[in-house]
Amino acid sequence: EEVPSREDIWDTPLSEASKKELYEFLHRNEDRTDASLLTEYDYLKSITYEDFLKKHGGIKEQETLDFLRGVNSVFAMPNESIDAFYALSYGAPGFGSTSFNFLRGNRASKFLKNYIVDPVHFFPDGNASYARMVVRRLIPECSDGSTSMTSIPTANIDYSKLDVAGSQVRIRLNSTVVNVAHDGDPESANRVTVDYMTDGVKQLQRVRTKHCVLACFNNMIPFIWHELPKQQVEALNKGYKQAMVVTNLLLRNWAAFRRAGAGAIYSPGHFHRIASLETALTVGDYKAPVSPDEPVILRLMGIPFGEGDPHPRNRALTGRRWLNNQGYEYFENDARSLLDGMLRPYGFDFERDVAAITVNRWAHGFAGVYSPAFEPPCEEGEYPYQIGARPLGRVAIANADSAARPEFDIAVREARRAVNQILTAHND
Fold it and tell me: Which end of the chain has the least Cβ crowding within 10 Å, N or C?
């Protein structure tokens, strides 16, 4: 991303004092912390991003803090509830005020791409394509037999082929597990019994298996698996989920955005602080809209920041309570106010130009991050999420929750770890 120019910043409705300190902060290339390059990571993990802005970013005006509060919705937490390094690593400004000032601007993503890993890979439908590729590989007959990722966005999946008697792999949808138990002592049992409920079937269904991986919301595990030791239950209960909202609008065209010269909008005065047009991504037969006269998806992101104690667990809880008390009209009205307010001078009319709205309210969205800014450091293997993920007998635990990180690649890593734990312990 390009750093906003002086003209860009002075064109905002901020006060003169806020404009000045915001400009200096965004353009600074001077280490303002006492940490060295070797200790900077640990230091930035130990303070919140808001503390960083105040202590090292030169931000004094509350107006500027409010402006920057939701500058990056990816981490689904306000600045006072997330550690500084996590915020910076996901694009929040400020690397120029640290020993990592060589990563300022867009150099962080370039550095990761050239020397570690390219962090930006996605499909038009997000992570759904990854799940569809896995299903297509496990059950080839459910689709066209192709295994290329370029064909997956438009590939058809025959749901009737997912759960066929006699198949080597069976996937049963709309089935909620309510009880998991070994057939005897977990340390010596040869089987695990799983009870579940299926849509349209009144009585419980049961399956017995040699092995089981619970890759669900980890906080629910103590309610369905009662064999766990007390310490592990307490550890699982310390996990939390961050609430967030993604509102998708189908626009009949994006001519107003073209006239405004904008592909994304940041509005700190709205619940939906970030609005961005669908990325022009063409994969296989899927063609992204390229003409302003074509329909396009506009994605709006909003975070229920919660209230009270800034500990992320409390903010996740109070944010979720707030979210569950909002009707859908709240989100539509906020989107209407945002877009008409920003784009009406460029010919946009919400009533005319929005064809459909989908509000995705994720009360239990991202896996909560274990933050040294709020939690004590632990020995490796003794963090609550690591204790919570310990296998027992023939059952292992996966999901991104078991690493306290919300990224897709982390979920894949945890799945591999859980499967390997079972295979290593029970080679049958």
Answer: C
